[in-house]
Amino acid sequence: xxxxxxxxxxxxxxxxxxxxxxxxxxxxxxxxxxxxxxxxxxxxxxxxxxxxxxxxxxxxxxxxxxxxxxxxxxxxxxxxxxxxxxxxxxxxxxxxxxxxxxxxxxxxxxxxxxxxxxxxxxxxxxxxxxxxxxxxxxxxxxxxxxxxxxxxxxxxxxxxxxxxxxxxxxxxxxxxxxxxxxxxxxxxxxxxxxxxxxxxxxxxxxxxxxxxxxxxxxxxxxxxxxxxxxxxxxxxxxxxxxxxxxxxxxxxxxxxxxxxxxxxxxxxxxxxxxxxxxxxxxxxxxxxxxxxxxxxxxxxxxxxxxxxxxxxxxxxxxxxxxxxxxxxxxxxxxxxxxxxxxxxxxxxxxxxxxxxxxxxxxxxxxxxxxxxxxxxxxxxxxxxxxxxxxxxxxxxxxxxxxxxxxxxxxxxxxxxxxxxxxxxxx
Length: 426
Ligand code: HAM
Prior knowledge:
The chain is an alpha+beta fold. The protein has helices spanning 20-37, 51-58, 63-66, 87-96, 141-157, 175-187, 194-202, 204-207, 213-218, 231-247, 291-294, 309-318, 338-353, 367-377, 387-392, 413-421; strands at residues 41-42, 48-50, 70-73, 79-82, 106-115, 127-136, 163-169, 252-253, 265-273, 281-287, 302-308, 331-335, 358-360, 381-385, 394-399, 405-409.
């Protein structure tokens, strides 16, 4: 293929072309629908933001900010970054538009591309697609459970089954600093290499996420945040788990979970699919109670998630499920001559006004090739019109699955087609 084309898409960035693109839309819209059912409104934000927003919001020491951002200077000397994630931008917009001064919680959802300069591999892309949501301004464990249950329901509605939800609590601003010291004291007793020791100084939690077996082994006895929660954080976490139980959302506790973004507090979670190899996270999120204040807004709490559309598609494929093979049109019109075409173009437009999806054989084609195109389109009906039909004021309506053909009056064809397709009159 590559020797046939002058350009190929940028490295590590997938295209979604028909027919697979239908699955992309189904997954994106399915996950978004789950958010709509829980009262989240759509928010549409720019894909570029002031670089400082991510440095301040996501954390300078995270890989996402320190290594993976697509940053550039525009012609006005502003330093901008292609958004690597959605939460910081939502906070910026909520503060800028004063949504935080209205009724709380502010419940928003979004879908779109995010950009991370990671090493591409199966399921890890440089432009990734997420459906996300954020609930801002109410610190209620029932809301945490709702957010998690929306993600769980979204995946299940698409037919996904073999995934697990991992949850933990990363503590609050009373217990986390104390735990951080405890963890650092422990880590500094270990024979860590220089780089890991530096990491322990800047962000000790991240050392627990080290994938190297020797570091994993060394840190097996590390103190865990879950054993050092403040009474408030503990009570919050217990209630979230109670709600999840009542909602019938299965979960496992993963006390060693470390997220790649620095803003998380209290409830934190990940959805993991084992059919995906190394890039197994199909979604993740949590509370970020200090983020809004950190970005210059009111001290409001927040919780949300980001679900990976690309990885959900791969997970469905790993389970042998395809979500969508819906045909692209209901009716395919086959004109046999120019006058017939002029009439069918008009009929097609009239049917579309009734919500019927119609395509037409454009160009000069033989009847045989046009009928083949009709079959390929997946349409239920073909409308065949020749000069003689036109003179008679009639149209042939062919049911493509059976080959049955009926002659109907042109002036009555819309009613006939609607009835055949069981489309109600509007
Ligand atoms: P995140 O865990 O960084 O969270 O990303 C969420 C999901 O996006 C991941 O679970 C994964 O499915 C997908 N994803 C991330 N990176 C890639 C990649 N390189 N290729 C393909 N898929 C990827 C966030 O972004 C947070 N903003 C989520 C959040 C919202 N937390 C609170 N509110």
